[in-house]
Design a protein that fits this description.
transferase, methyltransferase, 41% helix, alpha/beta, S-adenosyl-L-methionine, S-adenosylmethionine-dependent methyltransferase activity, 215 residues, Rossmann fold, Cation-dep_OMT, seven-stranded mixed β-sheet, binds S-adenosylmethionine
Amino acid sequence: MSFFEEKNPEMERYLETHASSEPDILKKLRRETYQKTTQPHMISGYQQGRLLTIISKMMQPKNILEIGTFTGYATLCLASGMSEKGKITTLDVNEDLAYLPKKYFAESGYSSQIDFRLLDAKEFLKETDEFFDLVFIDADKENYAEYFRLIKPRTKSGSVVMFDNVLWYGKVLEENPKQKSTQVIKELNDLIAKDDDFENLILPLRDGVNFLRRK
Ligand SMILES: C[S@@+](CC[C@H](N)C(=O)[O-])C[C@H]1O[C@@H](n2cnc3c(N)ncnc32)[C@H](O)[C@@H]1O
């Protein structure tokens, strides 16, 4: 649940009832995530899912990277817009939950185009020589700045990169945060703001999405 949902559930309902409806497979996945996982709030959820779906459909990317699969909600949203021969690589380190995304990927019809790997994202990024059109990062916040440094060389002009939770429940406004994750998210937002190779905007959707496009 987001900062805004907690504050204004009525508005949240209004937003949800005035946007395209959630596909059945995502409803089912969301329900099962709430039944079977201990931290279901980590799921991207409806609104963010809509954003990812629309961006992916507009871009029709050939090569997508997601860091932080969890139960696969965002993966399926991103996959729904990829080009016919497109591919999405999605990474997670949680072996215990892997059965859930695997089940829904198989059901989705995109399974041959989804490369789900149980692999630490830094390891992957240090090894890969691929270029990505669309990247969504929603994982361990302590590594966000490092992810940005490693992802940049794997993008090209027109690539879109999105970092989730960049407002960190408002903690980015703390001047001298003690929490490591807050320090790193602040470092990331500063790095991005100063990087002339990208244009960006922080969307105050849920917990904030830093939305970047490589010039
Ligand atoms: C907020 S959840 C992702 C939510 C997901 N994108 C969705 O739409 O439902 C964060 C995930 O990042 C994963 N994660 C944490 N550290 C990671 C790492 N070093 N590499 C890859 N995944 C990681 C966690 O296991 C967790 O499943």
